[in-house]
């Protein structure tokens, strides 16, 4: 397993772990106008690695505005264009789950309740 970190010393921070063909990106902090570009660079870096699937763990995100959501929508499209699985984990973060719900984007993403569930789903898809 390899690990990489984006956003050192500022918000948001993305910790990336790669185990085989799946990358898990754990995001912490807040994603808003001031941090959107940093978040974008981190997510772009994850996709650039060419994994079979990407799991974005948003469980520890304190706030996400519309610009952060736009980054995820764009990343989801890029992943689909490249044939990658793209999973969001909201876990117990009801604010992020609610954001996806009120914007009507819940069905646009593969949303998992936990990283473990997303990894199982990603491996199942990769094996098909």
TrEMBL record:
This is Anti-sigma factor antagonist. Residues 12-122 form the STAS domain. Belongs to the anti-sigma-factor antagonist family. It comes from Actinocrispum wychmicini. GO terms for molecular function: anti-sigma factor antagonist activity.
């Amino acid at each position: 397993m390899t690990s990489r970190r984006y956003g050192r010393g500022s918000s948001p921070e993305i910790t990336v772990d790669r185990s085989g063909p799946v990358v898990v990106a754990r995001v912490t902090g807040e994603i808003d106008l001031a941090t959107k570009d940093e978040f974008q660079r981190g997510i772009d870096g994850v996709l650039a690695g060419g994994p079979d699937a990407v799991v974005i763990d948003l469980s520890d995100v304190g706030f996400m505005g519309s610009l952060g959501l736009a980054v995820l929508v764009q990343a989801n499209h890029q992943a689909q264009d490249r044939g990658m699985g793209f999973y969001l984990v909201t876990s117990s973060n009801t604010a992020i789950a609610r954001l996806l719900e009120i914007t009507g984007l819940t069905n646009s993403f593969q949303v998992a309740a936990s990283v473990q569930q997303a990894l199982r789903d990603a491996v199942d898809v990769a094996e098909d």
